[in-house]
Amino acid sequence: MILLAKIELKNISKTYDNRDETTIENFNLSIDEKEFIVLVGPSGCGKSTTLRMIAGLEEITSGELWMNGEKVNTVASKDRNISMVFQNYALFPHLSVAENISFGLKVRKFKKQEIEKLVKETATVVGLEDLLKKKPKELSGGQKQRVALARAIVKQTDIFLMDEPLSNLDAKLRTQMREEIIQLHRKLQTTTIYVTHDQVEAMTMATRIVILKDGDIQQVGTPYEVFRFPQSKFVAGFIGTPAMNFLPVSYQNKMLYLKGVSLLAEELILPFEKTEWTLGIRPEDIHVNNEQGLPATIEYMELLGSELLLHLHHESYSFLAKVHHSHSYQEGQQVYLQFPEENFYLFDKESDKTWYSKGAFLHEEK
């Protein structure tokens, strides 16, 4: 029977002897039972290193790792009751699907009858019941990934750790496997920590997302929270496809200006003395029209099914707007852009901290 697992990382740091910088520093995170936590961020941000420390594959330099009320810093990986799914599947090429799935059970001295029962049950869960006699070379990428998942599931551990398990699959198969992993989590309710650099995976799979940059946590929240209420320019730019537009603006006479051109249709009252800001607005939140606003020229367009992505420029500034495909535009056409108050964010130009979020002030006067 799978136990419910709670994980706590307290001031975890990781330093390598051959590097001057600290890879992870003062990492604090509490993971509740049954959660599907996704660690996401650009390459080199420390997400895989964090996962490997939880797995016991990397030594923790300082700090404490707790699982179900027990400090496990010095507990061997094999004794942490975890299962890990890797990016490269890590299947034994000379073993059948059934033998790959059962390998960990044999190492742990399970009885033959019990192994056969568990393998059959697990293969059914992941849709491999007709492939148990095949070798890995006879399988597709998606089938190999299912074998790797089955090998993790069959061990009936407290925790699943997944390190970019879908990165070797094509786009269509990634979407399918995302859905299958989500369904597995709903069925098994096992505490899961999933690492990816793909923010679409993070947004569609996570109960909570942990966004990392240079070994530091930038924000922790539900997919809705990190998308709707980003706490910094980095988070705002990292979450969302296409990425948020950023423009340097000045606040004067209750209006926002880009190089002397007003971006607002109505006055904006900011309770801050600061005049220089970075304005952020998502492509889908810009209002494109033929009459009023910031003049911009359409450089080129991308048809995205029901949506049209406009690549625009105004003097030296380039940005994106997303509109419905039924709108008729042409390359080289001049249009006008409006930035509704309820649609944009303002970030401090020095700290990149979010101060104004879609009509709401996040801080007191500076």
Overall description:
The chain is 23% helix and 34% strand. It has 366 residues and is an alpha+beta fold. It has two domains: 7-236, P-loop containing nucleotide triphosphate hydrolases (Rossmann fold), CATH 3.40.50.300; 242-361, Nucleic acid-binding proteins (OB fold (Dihydrolipoamide Acetyltransferase, E2P), Beta Barrel), CATH 2.40.50.140. A hairpin with a 2-residue loop joins strand 11 (245-252) and strand 12. Helix 2 packs across helix 3 (112-125) and helix 3 (112-125) packs across helix 4. The chain is elongated, with a radius of gyration of 25 Å. Keywords: ATP-binding, Nucleotide-binding, Sugar transport, Translocase, Transport.
Question: Can you tag this structure with a few keywords?
Answer:
Transp-assoc_OB_typ2; 22 strands; 34% strand; six-stranded mixed beta sheet; OB fold (Dihydrolipoamide Acetyltransferase, E2P); Rossmann fold; alpha+beta; 2 domains; 366 residues; seven-stranded antiparallel beta sheet; 23% helix; Multiple sugar transport system ATP-binding protein; elongated
